[in-house]
Each structure stands twice: as structure tokens, then as C-alpha cells.
Amino acid sequence: MLDxxxxxxxxxxxxxxxxxxxxxxGKTTLLNHLLGHPDLKDSMVxxxxxGKVGIDHLLVERLGEDVVLLESGxxxxxxxxxxxxxxxxxxxxxxxxxxxxxxxxxxxxxxxxDPAPILQNMMLDPMLSxxxxxxxxxxxxxxxxxxETLNQHSVSVKQAAIADRLLISKQDIAEKSTVDLLLTRxxxxxxxxxxxxVSQGAIDPKQILNCGLxxxxxxxxxxxxxxxxxxYQAPETHDHEHDEDHEHEDHHHEHDHDHSSxxxxxxxxxxxxxxxxxxxxxxxxxxxxxxxxxDYSDKLLRIKGILNFKGTDTPLIIxxxxxxxxxxxxLASWPDEDHRTRIVFITRDLDPNIVKHALENVQPK
Length: 365
Description:
Strand order of the largest sheet: 4-5-6-3-7-2-8-9-10
Number of domains: 2
Largest sheet: 9 strands, mixed
């Protein structure tokens, strides 16, 4: 069995929410609203430069060269150097009592940034991967210019494709037909991400926080919400996907669950779920995924799933971004009666059948 962090350890790690979105989407307006919200009073906010966000009116005290205390009670740090070094330093100072004990991090990226390297950094760095956990990726999309941005800038496609929540800004000044087309496009890109409107940056933080595997307030894993595998199922298969007489004679591990799994959209993004009814062979599955990552790392935008390995009684959680896999997390028990292995893949310019073929022999006959 591969080494896996326990769910108890993962739940105690500090959650990190990544706030992304293309230039002009309204990300900064959202951040300024969040900075003053009482639900974030014990948070650390990492931004690229103070001057670009305009938080001077919220400053109370400077606690260090790059850290300031805001009137809301949360801390704000200018992320100018190496991310891993900055986050490690903040954690150490927190533990030593040099900083108030912040209980989450909200990290704002630049409008042209690909969020994947940030996620990879948190997975790759041995210190960060023990201190922090990824709570979710929040992407702000401009309702007026969002379609054009997606058509012209590939990074905006990636921002939306790997997000856990999509916040649609400026709907009040956009044509309804334009908003409808944008929502359709975003659903094709990322069917599992909940899309919701945001007006002038105002939104209840509860709608965008704790959208990862663990709710920081309850410390309970919420696998169904995090994985949202149902979003990838083709509507016509919902009523017959659990055929009791299915013998797996042809390794149909996808069970027709794929959402547009054989269709590449014009941006090349496909998202689908691979499901196994019976426990899978751990070595074969992990070797197959490792080979996929080795051969197609730039095309595998995100992998996440719950695993039922043969010979084990409890599930494990897998989460990867391009060429990196986070250490497996072991849950104390199954969250419900559904004990199937379910793995969600979000890919770009990669035929889903390549993934399915690579995984076809991982379930014992």
C-alpha cells in the first residue's frame, strides 16, 4: 500500500483558496469585498502587490516587511518572492506566535497566470504539502467579455477548466443571450464547477470557501460534493448505469458515464469520469496513472477521485494537476454506501479513449 496521509491529518492542514480570473474579470473587486468580510477575520490573504489591490483604507498595522493587519482582523501579505518560501515562513511565524493564528489562506493570482503551477507547487514542496491543503480554485469570469476572452486567450480556458467555482461578474450590464452562451460554454468546459453570479464583488464567502474535500468548520470529508462525479454523466445513461447483470467482460469501466467524453470542444478540453464497480488493483492503477502523467502531463489538467483498492476496507483520495500527484489521502471510512472507484479527468487536446485504454486492466476479472 502506498503511504497515504490520514484524513485526520489532512483536515487539520490550513486550507488554501486560489482566486483566479483573466484581466478585467472583476477579481480585484471581489478580493476587496472579501477582505472586509467578518468570515475572513482569521485569514491570511496573499496578493501579488499591495498597490495593485488598493487596500490602504483597510490597513491597521504593519506586522513585518510584507505583512499587514487589516481592520477586518485578517492578515495580508505581499507575495513578491518564492511562493513556497513565503508560505513556509508565514506558517513558522504563526506557530511561533509572531503572527496571529490565521486559519486559512486566500491567494490571488495575476490575471494572466495559469493556476496550475501554484497547485503543483503546493503538491511538490515537501513542507507545503504537510502544512497546507488545497481548498478550491475560484475563477471569476466577465459576463460581457468572457466568451471573447475564452476564444482568444488559452490561459483563460485553463483557469475556467480546473476551477471548483465559477463566479460570473458584470451580468447586470451583459445581454442575456451573451450570458446564456457563456454559461453553456463554461458548462462544456467544466460541468462540475458551480457557476454563480457576483455583483460588484459582493458574495457570501460561504459560497466559495470549503469547496474542497474537507469543510474546515466540520473537518468532515465531503467526497460527493468535491468530486461531483454526477456532473460528467450523460443524461441518457442516468437510469441504467448500475446494471446488476454487468459482467465487465469488455472492461467497460467507464459505464457510459462520460460527459461528452468522445467530443473535443473547440478549445480541446474534455472532462469525464472513469468508474469501476469492483475494487481495483492498486499497483496497476497507480502505474497506469504514472504512465499517463509521464506521457501526457501537459494535457492532463486535473485528476481527482476516490479509490477502492482490492484488499482494503477504507477509501483513498487521489488529486493531481498535470505532472504532479498529491500524496494519497486515506479516509477513515466510506462517506456513503457507494464504494465504487470514481476518477475525474479534465484534459486538453487528449482523446479520452487514450486514458480509458491505459486504465482498462486495473480491475481484476
